[in-house]
Amino acid sequence: MEIKVSVVMPAYNAQAHLEAVFKRIPDVIWNNVAGFIVVNDGSTDNTGALIDTLARSNSKIMPVHFEKNRGYGAAMKAGLLECKNGPCDAAVCLHADGQYPPEIIPEALETMRAKKLDIMQGSRIASGAALKGGMPIYKFLANRALTYFENMAYGLSMSDYHSGFLFYGKKALAELPFDLFSDSFDFDLEVIACGRARGLSIGEIPIPTHYGDEISHVKPIPYGFRALKVMGKYLFGGYKPT
Question: What is the DSSP string of 171-201?
Answer without folding.
Answer: HHHHH--GGGS-SSTTHHHHHHHHHHHTT--
